[in-house]
Amino acid sequence: MPDMARRIPHSATYPHSVARVHAALTSERYWRDRLAEAGGEHSHVDRIDVGAGTIAVEMTQAIPAEHLPSIVTKIRPGDLTITRTEDWGPLGDDRATGTFTAHVAGMPGDLTGTLTLTAEGTGATVALDGQVQVAIPLIGGKIESVIAEQIDDLLTHEDEFTARWLAEND
Questions:
Q1: Which InterPro entries match (predicted)?
Q2: What global pTM score does this model have?
Q3: Domain ranges of the chain
């Protein structure tokens, strides 16, 4: 019987219009600033392709081994190198959608999902619907739980950055 993936639902609401939030999410400057401040040590942008109201970002982040739970370091010693992508489509009818992925080098698992930007009153909400799956018999589910918790913390940190960035770059 195949392992079930663990869902990761997450959302953040900002007191800015959908158009303003979308403009940030599709801005090269926003992504470079976000990774510099919220990406952690040894993070960098690998590729940014900006289109007409669209963006495709690939980035690398690292999590030092000392910040990882023992269940992870037992199967994957050392720092974790994570390659992430995030793609946003154009804005239409106060809505935009996107996708994201994350992969840890040397780990049999992935994080994937969708992103939706919608109006919320006079503000905007970014909703993430993701799933993490680690294909390791017996302990994969435990690792998925740890990853889901870590991802939620990371997303909250990135949400806080985005709120500050929008306020400072209005």
A1: DUF2505 (IPR019639)
A2: 0.89
A3: 6-168
